[in-house]
Structure of CBS domain-containing protein:
Amino acid sequence: MRTIEPVSTIMSTNIITLNRADELETAELLFKRHKIRHIPVVKEKVIIGMLSYTDLLRISFADAVDESETEIETLVYNMFTIDQVMAKNVVTVNSDATIKEVAVILAQKEFHALPVVDKGRLVGIVTTTDLINYLLKQL
């Protein structure tokens, strides 16, 4: 198994992002529409935070109500901003970080996603799913 490959070989580059002015309802729609669990929050391609679907679940009834009912969710979402809910101290890696380095960070920090940043700009995101798929291909 080669673990010296750069993370750029397994990261996603088609990144869905939010900005701090977006609404939490918009975030939930993006999570569900794109079947993702993490969305970087950016300001002009510079990462300022990370919002996870779990963050939304902590403040809402996102999975507890019928999908056709949005009134409860909207009410709860209007009480918070993305800035209040997102993780702000985001750990990032460069695109030339090795897959092994990323695996160590994900295992030690118990994160499920890492933004990939080059020269201060968001260029990708790598998730535990990306890592597992890579490992499965090696077997």
User: Anything to note?
Assistant: The chain has a mean pLDDT of 88.
